[in-house]
Amino acid sequence: MKPYDANLRQLEIWKKTIGYEIKMMAPQSKDACDDFVMRLLRFEKQLQAEAAGKTEKI
Known about the structure:
By secondary structure, the chain is mainly alpha-helical. It has one helix at residues 3-51.
């Protein structure tokens, strides 16, 4: 598996995991979950930029 494909697969796993965590623990850990979601979104944008041929540091 290519690194890009592995990163996309891991991203999907994290999205599902954080979705579950938000549903189960949002009242206790909403700030932590929100922060994690923001990091995932930045990682996703970085993958998209790299796929488009632009390398972008976060």
